[in-house]
Amino acid sequence: MNEIEGIVLYSLDYKEKSKIVYLYTPYGKESIRVLQAHNLKKGLLPFTTTLNVVRYIKSKQEFPTLIEFRLMDSFYDVTQSLEGVHSISFLLKVMERIPDDANHERIYPFVLKTLREFKKGNCRKAICVFLIKMLYVFGVGPEVKYCCKCKAKDISFFSVEEGVGYCLNCYPQENRFAKIWQEYYTEKKEIEEYMDTEYDALMEEIIRYYQIHTEMVLK
Questions:
Q1: Would you call 76 exposed, middle or buried from its count of C-beta atoms within 10 A (0-12, 13-18, 19+)?
Q2: In the chain, what are the domain boundaries?
Q3: Residue 193 CB partners (closer than 8 Å, separation 6+)
Q4: Minimal CA–CA distance to 134: which of 159, 105, 111, 168?
Q5: Helix, strand or coil, per DSSP, at residue 177
Q6: Rounded to an integer, what distance in angstroms lies between the CA atom of residue 47 and that of residue 211?
Q7: If both were cysteines, with which of 21, 46, 143, 160 could 11 make a disulfide (CB 3.0 to 4.6 Å apart)?
Q8: How far is the C-alpha of 13 from the C-alpha of 180, rounded, in Å?
Q9: From 1.20.1440, 1.10.3470, 1.10.287, 2.60.120, which CATH number describes the 77-214 domain?
Q10: Are 50 and 9 in contact (CB under 8 A)?
Q11: Residues 107-156: pLDDT tens digits?
């Protein structure tokens, strides 16, 4: 039997002492029955705890049952701070909406990387980078590599409503987050290498972008 790695998203009570655990894996979202999950003597609590990373073996039924598992990592402690709670809330809402046909093998390590940044205390920057980059998964990524009119690389204005960037020649006005959107969406860096900014205001723009272009309400 093959072992699968996954991140626990949430769990629901099932029948008397059991639960259904929903996970995100390199193959997509999956639901697993965990029999006797409420029986503490069984030692199944780590498999049902949100944000735990587990490796598990399941039965081959259409609605599979957990056979055995190993706890690999836990990000539950991130929820001990208000900033962590907000970041986790945004991340989970987005993960629940990931399309079934998305490139999960590529997304999964990015989610893990983001959670590790949360654990280091980089919640605000990491969630902004995560949310902006994940727009690609929903097919509504911003066009910020070049000016949408003349293809100049120097973006000075970003329109949340249109989802495009403009250079100063094509749009004689600047806004403070144009460079951030361009860098956060297009660059491949470690979190600490990205520019810092006013994250509360940036998050308002990101939330607005999601609502306009994906109809997803993140608040």
A1: middle
A2: 4-74, 77-214
A3: none
A4: 111
A5: coil
A6: 33
A7: 21
A8: 42
A9: 1.20.1440
A10: yes
A11: 999 999 999 999 999 999 999 999 999 999 999 999 999 999 999 999 99
Pairwise CA distance, residues 169 & 153, whole Å: 12
- Domain pair 4-74 / 77-214, same fold: no
**Identity of residue 24:** Y
Show the tokens assigned to 156. 């000075």
- Measured from the Cβ of residue 110, the count of other Cβ atoms closer than 10 Å reads 14
Contact 142, 163 (CB under 8 A): yes
Tell me the CATH number of domain 4-74, given options 2.40.50.140, 2.60.40.3580, 2.40.170.20, 3.40.640.10: 2.40.50.140
pLDDT in the model for residue 86: 95
Write the CA distances from 29 to 2, 25, 51, 66, 74, integer angstroms: 17, 6, 14, 15, 19
| pLDDT tens digits for range 64-116 | 999 999 999 999 889 999 999 999 999 999 999 999 999 999 999 999 999 99
Q: How many CB atoms lie within 10 A of CB 212?
A: 14
Q: What one-character DSSP code corresponds to residue 174?
A: -
DSSP 185-218: HH----GGGSPP--HHHHHHHHHHHHHHHH----
**pLDDT, position 128:** 98
- Provide the token pair at 208: 């607005």
Torsion of CA 192, 196, 201, 202, to 10 degrees: -60
